[in-house]
Amino acid sequence: MNAADRPPAAAAPDALAALHDELHALREANAQLRLLANNVPAAIAYFERLGNTCRYANSVYAAMFGRTEDDILGLTVEQVIGEQAAQFIQPQVDRVLREKTAARYERELPGDDGGPRAIEVHLLPHLDAGGEAVGAFVLISDITRHRRAEAALRESEDRLAKFMFASAEGIVFHKGGLITDVNPPVLALLGRRSEDMLGRPALDFVAPEQRPRVAAVMAAGAETSYDTAVLHADGSTIPVQFIVRTLVYQGERLRMTIVRDLRDRLQAQARIRHLAHHDTLTGLPNRAAFGERAEALLAQARRDGRTLALLYLDLDHFKRVNDSLGHPAGDLLLQTVARRITGTLRADDLVARFGGDEFVLLLAGPTDAAAAREVASKLLAATGAPVELDGAPISVTPSIGIALYPVHGEDVAALLKHADTAMYHAKSRGRARCRVFEPAMAEAARAELAMEGRLAQAIRQQEFVLHYQPQLATQGTGLLGVEALLRWAHPERGLVGPDEFIPLAEARRLILPIGDWVLREALAAAVRWRHAGFATGPVAVNLSTLQFQAPGFAESVERALADTGAEGAMLELELTERMLMDDLPAVQAALARLKALGVGIAVDDFGTGYTSLAHLRDLPLDRLKIDRSFVKDLPHDAGAAAIARAIVQMGKGLGLQVVAEGVETVAQLGWVQAAGCDGRQGYLDARPMPDGALQAWLQARATSPRG
To answer: Taking the model in full, what pTM does it have?
Structure first.
């Protein structure tokens, strides 16, 4: 062989060295891959399609089935996981290999503690160079704690996130602060390619304001988890959680950071905070949020020496919308009112819904009484405009109370109390108006509170008495009936008329026990009169709206009749027009039950309401009582005479008995007789009197020559 034909002497050793280096690099890569696989919190394995045998498993996977990384190799799926489990997952494996797509499922294994162990399994197809599926990767995450946490009411998103499988989370390896490896989830999170990150300082991808803290953790080498933020490729920041661990490989320290996206969790927390401080129906701040913001505005006004105005707005008769049209319609009305209120105010004014139909506003700019009234007038106009509900225009007006800072209070609680007091005064003056707080209102409120307590005591101590006023026929001297009228026998003030305490009793629902006492006492008196030989006709008892609408009212009347030994015909119940208007089907049903007991039904103070003829025609009524406000101006007032005459004609046309209230003069008596009224009631014949005086009056009539 010639020298030219022989290879260079150094070629063979160089090739061997290169091959040795390549093998070493492969071993290094394989070792790193195994290190990574054995430190990721997931079980990983690879099963070859041919023979369905295991060709790779990390230590977690092998241990999960009682094997080692070596003795699991070559075993089939059925040998590893058991026949029953293999039958369960084989369709998943077949689909992955057939469709060359990933699959996910969950199943349970026996746990070390005897309970079930939940695992989440991901199957990923392995494709060869020709695109054919030659095997499947298996990634298993133990999600037992995750499922148990869900069963414990999903205590927080943060806890749920801890149980997410590793392949769904970002992983970054760095050594000496320089990135050595990243996985696809990190790249997707940051909008970057791997070549953009490898070899660069890890701090380059941390939000600038977070770098000192992250650098401190890196320098300390702490194994910890904490919230921070990373930089997206577009320059935006993303809130994340870092879970940091330290690994030692061949004497070198590697840092592994699991990166979890916190945006969903933070959005949920923001939503929870929003719900905690806002009304869910209208989106307005709630009472708690209003208090915090209002105190801040007051503090600023205190520093600046400015005045503010707080407005308390309550819708008038809103309950009737809910009762007649239903709560969805009421909710729609509240949402409309909320939009109209915010549309009326300035951007820096504060408005909140306190619940129900109550709204509170704090006008942020310097505001005196005149300016507050002007805003209130705009609110009255805006909120009172008709709203289309169920195809019909509905108008609900507000009543508004105003309190001024600092003259009416120097904190939110005082302003709210005084504005609320002013609002109730607006309601008591006819509603659909505003009132500015005055100190006298507070005195009245305290007096009302004292009256409420004293009234409750009067109920317990039975301090009430009944007086009775006869109702006479206009033609002849016959007695049509007797009306029972309530009086409070106050220990210090003497007899107190109903006008002083009935409105408060109705507002505080004390009218229910009072009304029940009146009913029973009047029936007991009627029984006494019959036993004494007096033919008085029915005793009339006035009803309150609360009493009439109370569940089981007809049954309570039936019990009162039975307990007192009275007959139904001995009782007449007087209702106002408004009580008849609220809910016609319910009113018809209630009156029908009462009529079945033999009880008479009268409409009191007729002419002051808005009852239609059709409404009256559909109700089982016996008597109309013309309100005294029309009778007092007879016979000289043409308008009053026209109204009273129309009521008489209408009542006659409906077959009802008509009684005129408040007849006090001979001229008034002459008019009602000429108009065709069936009866009259008033001071001309008799004033209201106690039971004993009434019996004396009845006795005197019985012995009188006129009868």
So the answer is: 0.48
| CA–CA distance, 636 with 677 (Å, rounded to integer) | 18
Pairwise CA distance, residues 89 & 45, whole Å = 15
CB 184 within 8 A of CB 166: no
pLDDT in tens, 486-539: 998 888 888 888 887 887 788 778 888 889 999 999 999 999 999 999 988 999
Task: Looking at 40-126, list the stretches that DSSP marks H as alpha helix, in order from N- to C-terminal side.
Answer: 59-64, 77-81, 83-99
Tokens of 463: 């301090």
Q: For the residues of 628-675, what is the DSSP string, one character each?
A: HHHHTTTTT-HHHHHHHHHHHHHHHHTT-EEEEE---SHHHHHHHHHH
Q: Which residues pair with 488 in a beta bridge?
A: 464, 496
Task: Determine the 3-state secondary structure of 193 from DSSP.
Answer: coil
Give the orientation angle of helix 327-344 with respect to helix 369-384, to 10 degrees: 140
Question: Tens of pLDDT along 491-501?
Answer: 888 888 888 78
Strands 623-626, 600-606: pairing kind = parallel
Walk me through the domains of the chain, giving residue ranges and CATH numbers: 21-162 (3.30.450.20), 169-267 (3.30.450.20), 282-437 (3.30.70.270), 464-703 (3.20.20.450)
Measure the CA–CA gap between 530 and 482, rounded to whole angstroms.
13
Helix (H) or strand (E) holding 126: strand 116-127
Count CB neighbours of 149 within 10 A. Answer: 17
Answer for the pair 238, 217: CB distance below 8 angstroms, yes or no: no
Cis peptide before 398 (omega within 30 of 0): no
Instruction: Calculate the CA dihedral of residues 482, 488, 494, 496 and round it to 10 degrees.
Output: -80
Q: How far apart are CA 102 and CA 190, in angstroms?
A: 24
